[in-house]
Write a structure and sequence with these properties.
It is built from 11 helices and 11 strands. It is an alpha/beta fold. It is elongated, with a radius of gyration of 19 Å.
């Protein structure tokens, strides 16, 4: 009997150079793929711009509707489907859990990439939470590695009580550097990537990334069996894990609220 085989072509984008995404997508399309699996809204945008016919599965993405990439979550239409998370709501929840963990924090900085399609929506949700909790939310922006370096250089003068990192490949690629530079001036970081906790982030509120890729594989399976991506409802992530790094808290001379420790899915000691 014929053996089922497949070929996987893989490319990696560091997040430093937005223009590099288009070139990587073009390389993959030269291989005439049956399905493109991508990660992140920026890459979904590049893939959608490059092809309106090749099925695109988002293993992870922000608000695809607000970004204009799909018509709706129930019936996406077009050639994009996959898994999405409510990034604006979850980023606001990171501000919320930070203040719960560190009640003395009054000046909180939110770092985002201004080129990100839903940056304004995220800021709006975060502003609502900050106003309710009566904290001063300062917005910081970095669109590439150079702007990130400039922001890190200014950080000692701004000296917030804590920093919440907005989701973007740029900030996951440079997570270690952001956390290290912040720690030097005694500022804790709340990140979205689970592995950032191992690099020294005080708190992480994020999704199970490997699980999202496993869900993406189910979309690929259905598409290869004949389903049209535009007919496959987009799945929204419903479970977010809380990770607390007590080792980082001790190094920074901070105490994390017991209520957050009780809720944590994982505590690093």
């Amino acid at each position: 009997h014929a053996e089922n085989t497949f070929r996987l072509e893989r490319r990696h984008w560091s997040g430093d150079d937005p223009s590099a995404v288009a070139a990587l997508i073009a390389e993959l399309l030269d291989h005439r793929p049956d399905v493109l699996v991508v990660n992140g809204t920026t890459v979904v945008q590049a893939a959608k711009k490059a092809s309106a016919t090749v099925p695109i599965v988002a293993a992870s993405s922000s608000d695809l509707v607000t970004s204009g990439l799909v018509k709706s979550y129930a019936r996406p239409g077009g050639n994009v489907t996959g898994v999405t998370s409510l990034i604006d709501v979850v980023t606001a929840k990171r501000v919320e859990i930070l203040v719960e963990a560190l009640p003395a924090a009054r000046k909180v900085m939110l770092l985002q990439n201004p080129h990100w399609p839903i940056a304004k929506k995220v800021e709006g949700e975060a502003n609502k939470v900050a106003a309710r909790l009566r904290v001063d939310l300062v917005h910081a922006r970095a669109g590439d590695a150079k702007e990130l370096d400039d922001w890190l250089d200014r950080l000692p003068q701004q000296r917030p009580d804590a920093i919440v990192i907005g989701p973007h490949t740029l900030f996951s690629t440079h997570a270690g550097r952001i956390i290290d530079r912040s720690a030097r001036i005694g500022v804790p970081v709340v990140h979205y990537r689970p592995d950032a906790a191992l690099r020294g982030a005080l708190l992480v509120l994020g999704v199970d990334i490997p699980a999202q890729y496993r869900r993406a594989a189910s979309f690929v399976d259905r598409i290869l069996k004949g389903a049209r991506p535009g007919d496959l409802p987009i799945e929204q992530v419903t479970k977010y894990d809380v990770i607390v790094n007590l080792k980082a808290a001790k190094a920074l001379g901070l105490s994390v609220s017991p209520t957050v420790l009780v809720r944590a899915d994982r505590v690093i000691e």
